[in-house]
Design brief:
The complex is a heterodimer of chains A (about 525) and B (about 350).
Chain A lengths: L11 H27 L3 H43 E2 L3 H7 L8 H11 L5 H9 L12 H25 L3 H9 L4 H30 L2 H5 L5 H10 L4 H32 L11 E2 L2 H35 L5 H34 L3 H11 L6 H15 L7 H26 L2 H9 L4 H30 L2 H6 L7 H10 L3 H34 L1
Parallel strand pairs in A: 1-2
Chain B lengths: L8 H4 L5 E12 L2 E12 L3 E5 L6 H9 L6 E6 L2 E4 L11 E4 L11 H6 L7 H14 L15 H13 L5 E5 L7 H18 L2 E6 L2 H7 L2 E6 L2 E6 L1 H6 L4 H6 L4 E8 L2 E4 L2 E4 L8 E7 L4 E5 L5 E8 L3 E7 L5 E7 L9 E6 L5 E4 L3
Parallel strand pairs in B: 3-8, 3-9, 6-7, 7-8
Antiparallel strand pairs in B: 1-2, 1-4, 4-5, 9-10, 11-12, 11-14, 12-13, 14-20, 15-19, 16-17, 16-19, 17-18
Classes of the chains: A mainly alpha (about 525), B alpha+beta (about 350).
Chain lengths: ~525, ~350
């Protein structure tokens, strides 16, 4: 009896089929969007240009430029300070500089909206100093939006630049010194040049976030693509127009994504393997220490402490006024349920592709992995449009059910689970599973008794990050949620757009507190890694 | 000393039945063919070593036997059953044990649980007793509650051996199990492993690039080169009667002295050796000489000069320069010192005449 040969023994064929299916589901909304955008009537393009594109295209590009500049300034300056200099409290500031990652853009926009509202804190201070309140700069402006988005996204530039600077081998710097290079030239040609890929990768990530942002620009009434797609879909019920509009941010995001991959890939080349020694940071005296600390405190205060303190004050007021009512509890439960379901679905669906990518590297498994990751780089409204388009053709009966929303969460956030599981599995030697098999355990027992316990933490970490991202997600939730099914994020947005500042405080503070969890996890991991490098 | 336990191997002569047999196995990874058409038989109860340089495919052969890789072509038979080829047996059904190079102990399990992992379908007390027995056997009676990371490298290796032997496999596979240990420990553990395996009588297949390890442990050795078996034989045969230049070089230090076969003898620069060849006309050959075949005495009129001496502890290796610019190596006890530069007379006594066709 001759059995037909599989290229790989055991469970591989089933797993690969399963993972291809999942990747297809993850990719269909995007493929559909692109397809329907490519096949729309040219007349629609003209109309879109006249009514929408003529505004949102320059708006988006201007925003990318200004946020790009500001995040570079904030991120690189702070990264430079904490890597090149040594001063009191640096060990804490280094980590606190990441705190803004816990605040979604729309929460920061809302917090500043309330600070700068008529009769608010900012106006009181302004009139005390300058008198005329009407001359105070408005938050609802190009610069207002730019500043908010920069404060939220500079940590990406900070993190990757810092990593690049920390990885710089002192050998290059010593070599340059022996060549009697001037100090300014040394900084420029060696330090900056070597940190350049990290800076660019961070910048690309920050700009991808800007492309994906919906809440901030919508709250501050600065129309960009995400906002236009949202309106096209919800106010004009024009899916082909929305798809056409989505095409441009999709293209731009892929450009940024490739930019990021390109620079991230280059980064690894510089880390010399043997004889690595980082340059020891320079000790600052009292005056310069104070200056460095002041710069950092100013930034963190603007991006985190001030809005956070404000949220807490407003939240306590809200609680005192009976804000913890049945409605609030229902929103919270809604949020927890959809986020938990989304995170669980994403974690389970990511598993086959993550396993194959880690254990059976090859062209096919890599293709599956990247196809499954497509959704992460896409703005929420684009994903929502894709899912609505797909659903309208294949499963219209799903309209208004929670399943469409979960599908959007999976498409958008499964890549996070995928990456987290992939790295967890890669850390477990393949021989663990092989040892189990040779000891008589089958595929299932090997998975349950050996692999699963060893990667549990990685799976859990991925789950938590996806959970929090689902909780923060705004545009897709707004577009796909069942009738009258509000989440905390939706509540923040609705109350804030109607300037009901205090009503938004409780949901906002919950979102920020939840956002701190994955951040703390990440910081802990980085600290362990740092300690390992020193030892 | 060739005293073997009656249970094991050729000289014990107990059994000639085949335990593992690979027939015309081919295995490629992508476009690289690692094993081209390999046929190999391992007998029941013997200790067999696959010896070869890195990249020769020896670990792949082990993984094919274990069922961790599937051959592109050919059959693998373990015991009575076809494991690969006409049908496929997954690793867990093959009754094999594998000791990994990195030991692959489960880090989240205690020593006890690691060893008990392969012991299924037993009562609690029976399990406890069995694990204790195994731990006693490998000399770690008190370590069952420890975790792998709390053990030294040598202890981990012992646990890995106990774990692999726990389900009483028909064949034990060892993938360079001693390579992560330092020299003294390596020899100690190798001796002990041999004792345990002889007691159990388990058919064992070792993969190694260390010839000394293969010599000291094996009943038979298969020398591999580029996925092909160059020679199988006892350690003695591999060392003294290598079938190819590759084996001759890989099994130990060898010098090749040019000569020619005339009639039934080899005529070379350093002597004429009669060993009853079939007469086949004058053929140019290289005569293989091992350092232990070469002796010398100081002699003012000798034909060779001591060019270099390398002190190795119990013995020394000397490089003797011959008149034609060629040199030959000799090993002698290191008790007596010889001055480099002094003239010596070479005395050659090869136990076996090994010649290879001349290569130019």
């Amino acid at each position: 009896m001759h059995r037909t040969k599989f290229k790989f023994p055991d469970q591989f064929p089933y797993l690969i089929t399963l993972s291809i299916g999942i990747a297809a589901v993850a990719a269909i909304p995007i493929i559909f969007t692109v397809y329907s955008a490519a096949t729309v009537d040219p007349e629609l393009w003209r109309r879109l240009y006249d009514t929408r594109l003529n505004v949102i295209l320059p708006n988006t590009i201007m925003l990318l430029i200004s946020v790009g500049g500001m995040t570079l300034l904030m991120g690189v300056t702070t990264a430079w300070i904490v890597t090149r200099y040594d001063f009191r409290g640096k060990g804490i500031w280094e980590w606190l500089l990441m705190l803004p990652l816990a605040i979604p853009g729309y929460v920061l926009a809302y917090a500043y909206g309330s600070i700068m509202a008529p009769g608010g804190m900012a106006q009181t201070i302004w009139s005390g100093i300058f008198g005329d309140v009407s001359k105070m700069p408005s938050l609802y402006s190009f610069w207002g939006v730019s500043l908010i988005l920069s404060l939220v996204n500079y940590p990406y530039v900070y993190l990757l630049t810092r990593a690049s600077l920390l990885n710089q081998n002192i050998k290059y710097i010593e070599a340059a010194r022996t060549l009697r290079v001037s100090k300014a030239k040394l900084i420029w040609s060696i330090n900056i040049r070597l940190a350049y890929p990290g800076m660019m990768a961070g910048l690309a990530l920050a700009l991808m976030e800007v492309m994906a942002d919906f809440g901030t620009v919508a709250l501050l009434r600065y129309p960009t693509f995400t906002e236009a797609i949202y309106r096209q879909m919800t106010a004009r019920f024009d899916p082909s127009g929305a798809a056409a509009l989505a095409l441009i941010p999709v293209a731009m995001t892929f450009l940024l994504l490739n930019l990021e991959r390109h620079f991230r890939g280059r980064r690894s080349f510089e880390q010399t393997k043997g004889g690595f020694r980082a340059e020891s940071p320079k000790k600052l005296n009292l005056k310069t220490s104070l200056f460095a600390t002041a710069v950092i405190i100013l930034l963190i205060s603007l991006a985190f402490f001030i809005p956070f303190a404000l949220l807490i004050t407003m939240a306590t007021d809200a609680i005192r006024n009976g804000g913890l009512d049945g409605r609030f509890i229902r929103f919270t439960l809604n949020t927890i349920i959809v986020s938990a379901l989304g995170a669980t679905a994403a974690s389970i669906l990511a598993a086959p592709a993550a396993y194959l990518h880690a254990r059976r590297p090859g062209a096919l498994t890599r293709a599956v992995y990247y196809t499954s990751s497509l959704g992460y780089s896409l703005p929420g409204p684009v994903v929502a449009v894709g899912i609505l388009l797909t659903a309208s053709i294949f499963f219209g009966w799903l309209y208004g059910s929670i399943l469409l929303l979960l599908m959007a969460y999976v498409v958008r956030f499964m890549p996070i689970a995928l990456q987290s599981q992939d790295s967890a599995i890669s850390l477990v030697s393949k021989s663990m599973e092989e040892a189990s098999r040779t000891l008589g355990a089958g595929v299932w027992r090997t998975f349950k008794a050996i692999l699963l316990p060893l990667i549990r933490r990685g799976i859990l970490a991925g789950w938590v990050v996806v959970f929090v991202d689902c909780m923060k997600e705004l545009p897709a939730t707004m577009m796909l949620r069942p009738l009258a099914f509000d989440t905390l994020a939706v509540r923040v947005w609705i109350e804030a757009s109607e300037s009901l500042w205090e009503m938004a405080a409780l949901p906002a503070i919950l979102i920020v507190l939840a956002g701190l969890a994955p951040l703390i996890m990440m910081i802990k991991r980085m600290k362990v890694k740092n300690a390992g490098e020193i030892a | 000393m060739l005293v073997k336990s009656p249970k094991t191997g050729l000289w014990g002569g107990k059994t000639e039945a085949s335990q593992v047999s690979l027939k015309e196995i081919t295995k490629s990874f992508g476009r690289v063919t690692v094993i081209p058409n390999l046929t190999l038989e391992i007998k029941k109860g013997e200790f067999f070593s696959l010896l070869g340089p890195s990249g020769c495919g020896k670990t792949t052969i082990l993984r094919l036997i274990a069922g961790l890789e599937e051959p592109d072509r050919g059959n693998i038979i373990i015991g009575e059953s076809v494991a690969a080829g006409e049908c496929w047996l997954p690793p867990e059904k093959r009754k094999i044990g594998l000791v990994f190079q990195d030991y692959a102990l489960f880090p989240h399990m205690t020593v006890f649980k690691n060893i008990a992992f392969g012991l299924t379908g037993r009562g609690k007390n029976e399990l406890k007793q069995k694990v204790r027995e195994l731990l006693d056997m490998v000399g770690l009676p008190d370590e069952e509650r420890r975790y792998p990371h709390e053990l030294s490298g040598g202890q981990q290796q012992r646990v890995a051996l106990a774990r692999a032997l726990a389900p009483s496999p028909e064949v034990l596979l060892l993938d360079e199990p001693f390579s992560n240990l330092d020299a003294d420990l390596r020899i100690e553990l190798r001796t002990e492993t041999k004792r345990i395996l002889e007691e159990k009588g388990t058919t064992s297949i070792l993969v190694t690039h260390d010839r000394e390890e293969a010599f000291s442990l094996s009943d038979r050795i298969g020398v591999l080169n580029g996925g092909k078996v160059e020679q199988t034989g006892t350690p003695h045969e591999i060392y003294h009667k290598p079938a190819s230049r590759f084996v001759a070089n890989f099994a130990g230090k060898a010098d090749f002295i040019p000569g020619r076969i005339e009639g039934d003898s080899v005529i070379s620069d350093i002597g004429v050796f009669k060993r009853g060849f079939a007469p086949c006309g004058a053929v140019p050959v290289d005569l293989m000489v091992r350092p232990d075949d070469v002796d010398f005495v100081p002699d003012e009129k000798g034909e060779a000069v001591i060019a270099a001496a390398e002190f190795l502890g119990p013995e020394s290796i000397f490089r003797l320069a011959l008149p034609g610019g060629r040199s030959i190596h000799s090993v002698k006890p290191s008790k007596i010192k010889y001055q480099t530069g002094s003239r010596v007379k070479i005395h050659l006594d090869p136990a076996h005449i090994v010649v290879f066709p001349r290569e130019d």
